[in-house]
Please model this.
Amino acid sequence: MRPFGRLDRRRAFVSGGARGIGAAIARVFAAAGADVIIGDLDVADATGLARQVGVTAVQLDVTDTDRVQAIMLRHGPFDMVVNNAGADQHAFFTDTTPDDWAKLLAVNLVSAFACTHAALPAMQAAGFGRIINVTSEAARMGSKGGAVYAAAKGGVIAFTKSIARENARYGITANAIAPGPIRTPMLEQAVAKAGDKILRAMTGATLLRRLGEPEEVAAAALFLASDQAAYITGETIGVSGGMGLGG
Model:
């Protein structure tokens, strides 16, 4: 067993790894000794991060399943896959369209299908793997103004449990992390659109009365990727300041 929190000689893929939570995960994985590939549509930020922390960046639209398959096969096999790519839309459900649903489901849920589907055969052959899916507390609590996002992230939780059941016999674990309000570019966009009122509501919904930091989510991902988490699978871990418990 490797020392606590070490990922030496492991190869990891992180979707949506250019900024926010994905970038924090890429940093801590690289610092722990992993060989990290980040895939993101924002190639400029991804490349900048790659130069800073010594990871590899590839331009990737996670909604393009054929491209996902090609990238995962070209840069794999992977010991660890972090399905982190996500997008939100702050609008009441009656103001959304079928095109909105399709896009949000593709980015938040179908991308996790695609990356996992591409990585699993090699993990099964190796007898080892870590699938870590970034969901949201919105999946467990619902989201006023984010019904489709919450539904997609709820699907991520169910998908995680199913992958855990199917792949335990191969030595593969699958777990999810449910962040609450985290200080990320996606949250900043929401505040810019809706104002400080939404920020106060988010922090007020946590027991700790503050935003989380991307590094706090990354710490949970590092643990789940480590040898010390080998007996944990099918779980959803909240990193949300107690949001799931209510005020």
